[in-house]
């Protein structure tokens, strides 16, 4: 945030006394008013104001986050920036925001586009795109479109997240920004670096002036961090009180590297034509070491009780590299009253996991006496010293895996619009079509090393031989670490082919192709203070899945096809109540295909037990109604309220079909099924304002707040073996939080910008248990994250920044049925960052 001025008198700023300098900057602003000639302002207010202008003029219900004038989003990555918007929350991985939920609907029910083309998902089983793979430096704006017009893909129930990257036409002339940052993780006491840069300029081609633009951005970050975890997996026996069957302590040590690059070109040969090429590359490498120590009680125990238990140690050591590539070429040309536009897009996502240790388990040589725990929420293991003696454990089994997933999407879109008058009112007719071809392939290879005592002596397999230092664990006493290299050296003398797990390797492989042909017609009409948009979209889908099943030790090739067609009408209305107030209403339809994990054709049938995917699943269909009002109040100011209602058919859930239909003689038949109907309804409230009419220094205050209150109703069915009946029960939609809210308090002047923000998400249903076993449903507890950031311009072009994330050391807690019974508890600790940015604009 900076204002070019003819005069400014401000206090000095020192890195070593950041907190004092922040305070003194505010005080001095009060004592010495600044005489300025406002030429250009960038900062929190300017960024919010740009976003609100885009939101205000949109034909859809839309929320926007805009980078400020130095191409900086308000948060570290795209996911965490989006969580500040009304109705948006994030799923976190190791404390970092990754996947985005909109209006309580899970990330797989939303879509992500980069520069207008769909982003496929790197993970083998998901459609959701982890937005932390997109460095903030590559993004110019982020939008969440909550009501889809007929010219948009209909593949989102909550919202479509639109990512726009940097363009040379975002700035006048030469622009550049280069920065460095150091981050400190309090949990692991590790310091991590980050470097980034962006540059753009315009050039003159032919007879034009500044009609060709080039923009480039690059970002690299390495982060060393970790978390401490204790979990039961929901292994509580509720038949006789609440007794725990097993528990496990986990320590995560992670190195995460992000690399992102973008190169964009814009060409505007005249006032009637424009062309662009957008390219983006993102690489996300995760190296994880997980040490675990656990017990299985001989009999379920209550807190404080002691008994015998089996003990074990485990190690997981893996590396995953996710890559996203996106290439988009498009343009627009006007021919009188006609406008022709088109786009060709290609995106590819992949996840490569080289050979690693998926699990190495060391079993206790004997049972451990006097074992117990205390505290049902954050269990603390109570056990004798023998449990911590490595000589009492022997290597039992090692699973090694490598895998590769690739997801590609190619599309071609063409739109034609004509402006005309209808009964004397401005109107536009628009029609077009889109062809999309998507292919997802998953290849997993598994080796299972068991019966190791046939090859090695007891001494060679003793945990004594695999120790690796102490584990940094904050939730109690932990054993020494385990060396992955020592395990790999031991197994190196064996012939890997002798341990190939053909079952796991073949059944988890699949290829799924998804071809979508779409066409639409849309009519826009402006009548006095009204704007109406009505239209119809058609989407036809052809899905083909190929894989392998295993039936009683015999492999079977599987090929399944599924075709479906959807006609999706839509109606939008916007009424300008006065120059600053408008009312919006929308009736829309959307369709979301099942995830690839749900569609995977592989199966395993072993006697009377079966598990399988379901390629015959129907897509989710939703009828959506939105009604709201927006009132804009000067610079960076808005107050709004929106009601929304979604009527969803065919929602998908886990189920057990044992005892029914073709599975009548089975004890277990786990798969996915379509539910009948679900409803989601709620209200979004938002407020933002800069108090620039107040006397200094209070004229630098900014306040932003939003809250979304929602409810959902759904029902599931399943066969209950104990009663011999098909049961039905009501549930909330999985991953749907009833309350999501944000509060932001900011202050800024010509050089200093401060922001304190809080993000709240209420508890939600994370996993549904058997239809007759509500007590074993898993619920994620509510979370509140508090962050602070400060920016200070040492000079007009040099900015110092400080960030403190997760100031309250918020944890992640999942409970079983009721809040007092742990399924998973995880702590991360705060993170602090100090950075320096050089900018020319």
From TrEMBL:
InterPro entries: Beta-barrel_TonB, Beta-barrel_TonB_sf, Plug_dom, Plug_dom_sf, TonB-dep_rcpt-like, TonB_rcpt_bac
The protein, known as: Vitamin B12 transporter BtuB
Chief location: membrane
Residues annotated as domain TonB-dependent receptor plug: 55-160
SUPFAM superfamilies with a match to the protein in the record: Porins
Localization per Swiss-Prot or TrEMBL: Cell outer membrane
Family that this chain belongs to: Belongs to the TonB-dependent receptor family.
PROSITE patterns recorded: TONB_DEPENDENT_REC_3 (PS52016)
UniProt membrane topology term: Multi-pass membrane protein
């Amino acid at each position: 945030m900076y204002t070019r001025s003819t005069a400014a008198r401000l206090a000095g700023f020192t890195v070593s006394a950041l907190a004092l300098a922040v305070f003194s900057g505010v005080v001095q602003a009060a004592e010495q008013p600044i005489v300025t000639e406002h030429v250009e302002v960038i900062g929190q207010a300017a960024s919010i104001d740009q976003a609100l202008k885009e939101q205000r003029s949109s034909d859809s219900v839309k929320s926007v986050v805009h980078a400020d004038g130095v191409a900086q989003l308000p948060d570290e990555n795209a996911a965490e920036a989006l969580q500040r918007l009304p109705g948006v929350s994030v799923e976190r991985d190791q404390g970092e925001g990754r996947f985005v939920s909109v209006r309580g609907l899970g990330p797989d029910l939303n879509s992500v586009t980069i520069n207008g083309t769909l982003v496929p998902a790197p993970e083998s089983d998901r459609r959701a795109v982890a937005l932390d793979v997109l460095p903030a430096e590559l993004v110019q704006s982020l939008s969440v479109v909550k009501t889809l017009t007929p010219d948009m893909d209909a593949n989102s129930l909550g919202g479509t997240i639109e990512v726009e990257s940097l363009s040379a036409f975002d700035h006048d002339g030469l622009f550049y920004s280069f920065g460095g940052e150091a981050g400190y993780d309090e949990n692991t006491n590790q310091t991590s670096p980050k470097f980034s840069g962006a540059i753009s300029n315009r050039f003159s081609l032919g007879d034009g002036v500044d009609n060709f633009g080039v923009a480039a951005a690059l970002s690299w970050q390495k982060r060393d961090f970790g978390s401490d975890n204790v979990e039961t997996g929901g292994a509580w026996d509720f038949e006789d009180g609440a007794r725990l069957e097993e528990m496990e302590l986990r320590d995560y040590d992670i190195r995460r590297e992000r690399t992102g690059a973008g190169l964009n070109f814009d060409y505007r040969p005249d006032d009637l034509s424009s062309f662009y090429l957008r390219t983006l590359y993102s690489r996300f490498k995760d190296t994880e070491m997980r040490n675990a120590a656990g017990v299985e009680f001989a009999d379920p125990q209550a807190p404080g009780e002691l008994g015998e238990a089996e003990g074990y140690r485990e190690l997981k050591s893996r590396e995953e590299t996710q890559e996203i590539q996106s290439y988009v070429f498009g343009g627009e040309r006007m021919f009188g009253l006609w406008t022709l536009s088109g786009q060709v897009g290609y995106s590819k996502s992949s996840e490569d996991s080289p050979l690693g240790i998926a699990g190495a388990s060391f079993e206790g040589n004997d049972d451990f006496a006097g074992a117990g725990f205390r505290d049902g929420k954050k269990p603390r293991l109570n056990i004798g010293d023998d449990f911590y003696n490595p000589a009492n454990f022997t290597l039992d089994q090692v699973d090694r895996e490598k895998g590769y997933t690739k997801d590609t999407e190619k599309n071609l879109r063409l739109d034609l619009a004509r402006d005309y008058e209808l009964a004397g009112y401005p109107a536009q007719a628009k029609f077009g079509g889109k062809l999309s071809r998507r292919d997802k392939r998953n290849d997993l290879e598994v080796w299972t090393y068991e019966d190791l005592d046939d090859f090695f002596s007891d001494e060679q397999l003793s945990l004594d031989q695999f120790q690796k230092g102490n584990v940094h664990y904050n939730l109690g006493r932990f054993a020494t670490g385990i060396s992955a290299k020592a395990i790999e050296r031991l197994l190196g003398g064996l012939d890997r082919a002798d341990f190939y797990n053909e079952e796991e390797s073949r059944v988890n492989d699949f290829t799924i192709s998804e071809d979508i042909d779409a066409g639409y017609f849309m009519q826009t009409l402006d009548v006095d203070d009204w704007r109406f948009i009505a239209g119809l979209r058609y989407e036809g889908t052809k899905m083909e899945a190929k894989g392998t099943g295993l039936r009683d030790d015999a492999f079977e090739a599987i090929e399944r096809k599924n075709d479906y067609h959807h006609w999706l009408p839509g109606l939008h209305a916007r009424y300008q109540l006065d120059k600053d107030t408008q009312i919006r209403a929308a009736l829309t339809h959307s369709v979301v295909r099942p995830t690839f994990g749900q569609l995977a054709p592989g199966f395993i049938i072993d006697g009377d037990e079966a598990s399988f995917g379901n390629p015959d699943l129907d897509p989710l269909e939703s009828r959506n109604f939105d009604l709201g009002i927006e009132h804009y109040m000067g610079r960076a100011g808005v107050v709004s309220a929106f009601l929304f209602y979604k009527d969803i058919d065919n929602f998908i859930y886990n189920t057990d079909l044992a005892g029914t239909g073709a599975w009548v003689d089975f004890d277990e038949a786990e798969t996915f099924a379509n539910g009948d109907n679900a409803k989601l309804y709620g209200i979004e409230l938002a407020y933002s304002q800069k108090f620039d009419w107040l006397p200094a220094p209070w004229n630098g205050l900014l306040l932003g707040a939003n809250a979304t209150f929602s409810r959902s109703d759904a029902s599931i069915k399943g066969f209950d073996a104990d009663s011999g009946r098909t049961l039905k029960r009501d549930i909330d939609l999985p991953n749907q939080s009833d309350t999501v809210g944000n509060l932001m308090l900011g202050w800024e002047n010509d050089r200093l910008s401060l922001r304190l923000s809080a993000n709240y998400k209420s508890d939600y249903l994370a996993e549904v248990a058997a239809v007759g076993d509500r007590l074993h449903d898993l619920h994620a507890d509510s979370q509140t994250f508090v962050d602070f950031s400060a920016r200070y311009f040492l000079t007009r072009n040099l900015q110092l920044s400080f960030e403190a994330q997760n100031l309250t050391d918020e944890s992640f807690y999942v409970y079983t049925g009721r809040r007092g019974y742990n399924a998973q508890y995880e702590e991360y600790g705060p993170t602090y960052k100090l950075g320096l940015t050089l900018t020319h604009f």
